[in-house]
Amino acid sequence: MDIKLRIEQPSDYNETENVTREAFWNHFSPGCDEHYLLHIMRNHPKFVPELDIVAELNGKIVGNVVCLKSFIMADDGNQYEVLSLGPISVLPEYQQKGIGRKMIALTQERAFDMGFRAILLCGDPDYYLRQGFIPAETLGIRTEDNMYATALHVYELYDNALANAKGRYIEDEIYQVDKSAANEFDKRFPPKEIIVGTPSQKRFDQIVVMRRKAI
């Protein structure tokens, strides 16, 4: 496939939000909020427009990835700015074709060029470990509530970028989506069936509880 990666433009917003909705619908939970999250992220002061990348095939947007600035509160009292990756989406009919991998690789390349030190995200290790990420626990990085989490992954953009950053990863509050606002936003789109208990939802439910207290 001749996939073109480029920066998202304002004229793409509706199409990209629909791509995100299609990608996440009934995946992690019944319905989804990620298209609303994308919608509100773009005006956030920590949003990084240079890393708002769409994947295009024959003039049709089939994928998108975005990043937000966040930080690690290190145990030594210092703060280290990092990037939070996501949401990342690919239309269901184009998944398993390497599009997500290409978007992540370009994000990593551009983030390095921009001087960022690392990218973090919460996701399925079965996928992200294949994209060069490692468990955050490997570097002593925990969640904001001081837990080691199987879902938390990190990608250092250069050697020893987080050598002194053992501590707690603090992602922005925007990721705590207002469900009622998300439901209202979703009314802009054609109705879709909400399904409970899909295999991917069960997998997600397993992963999110794989946490342990840091000693």
From TrEMBL:
Key words of the record: Transferase
Protein name, per record: N-acetyltransferase
Keyword Lipid metabolism: no
Listed Gene3D superfamilies: 3.40.630.30
PROSITE patterns attached to this UniProt entry: GNAT
Taxonomy, superkingdom: Bacteria
Domain N-acetyltransferase: 3-161
SUPFAM superfamilies cross-referenced by the UniProt entry: Acyl-CoA N-acyltransferases (Nat)
GO molecular function list: acyltransferase activity, transferring groups other than amino-acyl groups
Record carries keyword Transferase: yes
Native species: Bacteroides finegoldii
Matches recorded under Pfam families: Acetyltransf_1
